């Protein structure tokens, strides 16, 4: 499953948002094999298409795709120098696919800010600096090792050294690796280090509950958006308070509540969608009487590897995929009608999956 880590300074609304995520949580029965730790929340990825498919195929069960959020507490100014940024913190954050940084963009005199004032850019830079310092530490350790190996004439080590130097120089100026525009080759060399600042990242601007309908007057948000645009990161605007209220409601009630607020989707849904596009993810579907199910893959995945998401045996024994595009299927009204019109295609091992492919894999056991 895709995993997004939530970071941010204390008192910016991380726990509030995270609690909303856990409460909104996906049905545990759908994920029997993943034990849920207290700092992990699993949510359904909203995709209306799966309900439509379930109706068409009279499926007994609906299984949406899921996304995991990990609450990564413990990041404060100076953390990388002291105890704060311990091994436990690092091991959590190193595993995630993307990092969502919550930024306080609401004024509230009752809630103190760790630095005494509201200043989103300063906050972003505090966190980014800590992440850069943690990465610098990893890179420097690697440099020491690789230098020794390079001296013995090892070619790979010699090629890697200048990359490490370049990255170390940037990190010591608090420039994240993701902003360096490194070549694929260079990124491959760094892969093993699982650098934090090489991960995809987005900012979650946490605004006041009074502003969700219209935050055009929120200057903090504007500043975050400008900052993010410069480094090519995304911004999602939410009110953690509102999200925690929505999480208490049934689907119907939530819908009415959002309508009252004059917004079309919850902040959590926006966050999930933004994470999807940040990571270049798409969904394909399987549908039958048993269940209608959405599967997450990286855009560009070929049919056998997509089959591997379902089971490694299906990937190993892959013969062909029977595929119909979701829109074609809906336009025809049924799988049979789509077949008659020749819209159900047989695709081979080089087929690149598309978003919305309704798929049946043929395979050898
Ligand atoms: P954390 O330390 O980052 O996990 O922050 P918390 O989630 O504990 O939030 C800190 C305080 O800010 C709590 O008192 C929250 O109720 C409050 N808070 C969080 N989000 C909002 C919001 O959208 N509006 C307002 N007014 N307060 C919020």
From TrEMBL:
Belongs to the TRAFAC class OBG-HflX-like GTPase superfamily. OBG GTPase family. YchF/OLA1 subfamily. Residues 2-258 form the OBG-type G domain. Keywords: ATP-binding, Magnesium, Metal-binding, Nucleotide-binding. It comes from the Bacteria. Its cofactor is Mg(2+). Residues 280-363 form the TGS domain. Gene3D superfamilies: 3.10.20.30, P-loop containing nucleotide triphosphate hydrolases, TGS-like domain. This is Ribosome-binding ATPase YchF. Pfam families: MMR_HSR1, YchF-GTPase_C. The keyword Lipid metabolism does not apply. The lineage of its organism: Bacteria, Bacillati, Bacillota, Negativicutes, Veillonellales. HAMAP family: YchF_OLA1_ATPase. InterPro entries: ATPase_YchF/OLA1, Beta-grasp_dom_sf, G_OBG, GTP-bd, P-loop_NTPase, TGS, TGS-like, TGS-like_dom_sf. NCBIfam families: redox-regulated ATPase YchF. PROSITE patterns: G_OBG (PS51710), TGS (PS51880). ATP binds at residues 11-16. The gene is ychF. ATPase that binds to both the 70S ribosome and the 50S ribosomal subunit in a nucleotide-independent manner.
């Amino acid at each position: 499953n895709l995993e997004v880590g939530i970071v941010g300074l204390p008192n910016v609304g991380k726990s509030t948002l995270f609690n909303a995520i856990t409460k909104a949580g996906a049905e545990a029965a759908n994920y029997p094999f993943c034990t849920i730790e207290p700092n992990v929340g699993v949510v359904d990825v909203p995709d209306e298409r799966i309900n439509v498919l379930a109706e068409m195929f009279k499926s007994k069960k609906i299984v949406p795709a899921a996304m995991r959020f990990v609450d990564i507490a413990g990041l404060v100014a100076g953390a990388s120098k002291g105890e704060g940024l311990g091994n436990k913190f690092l091991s959590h954050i190193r595993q995630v696919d993307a990092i969502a940084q919550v930024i306080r963009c609401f004024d509230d005199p009752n809630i103190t800010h760790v630095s005494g004032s509201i200043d989103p850019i300063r906050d972003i830079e505090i966190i980014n600096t800590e992440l850069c310092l943690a990465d610098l530490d990893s890179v420097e350790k690697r440099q020491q090792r690789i230098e020794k190996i390079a001296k013995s004439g090892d070619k790979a080590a010699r090629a890697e050294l200048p990359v490490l130097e370049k990255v170390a120089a940037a990190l010591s100026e608090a420039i994240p690796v993701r902003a360096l525009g490194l070549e694929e080759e260079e990124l491959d060399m760094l892969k093993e280090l699982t650098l934090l600042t090489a991960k995809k990242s987005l900012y979650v601007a946490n605004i006041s509950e009074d502003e969700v309908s219209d935050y055009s007057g929120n200057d903090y948000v504007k500043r975050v958006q400008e900052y993010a645009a410069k480094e090519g990161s995304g911004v999602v605007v939410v009110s953690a308070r509102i999200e925690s209220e929505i999480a208490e409601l049934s689907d119907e009630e939530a819908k009415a509540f959002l309508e009252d607020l004059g917004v079309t989707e919850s902040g959590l849904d926006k966050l999930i969608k933004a994470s999807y596009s940040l990571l270049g993810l798409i969904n394909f579907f399987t549908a039958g009487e048993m269940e209608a199910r959405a599967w997450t893959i990286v855009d560009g995945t070929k049919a056998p590897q997509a089959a591997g998401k379902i089971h490694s045996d299906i990937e190993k024994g892959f013969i062909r995929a029977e595929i119909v595009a979701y829109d074609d299927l809906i336009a025809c009204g049924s799988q049979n009608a789509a077949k008659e019109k020749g819209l159900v295609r047989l695709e081979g091992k080089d087929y690149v999956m598309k978003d919305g492919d309704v798929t049946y894999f043929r395979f050898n056991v």
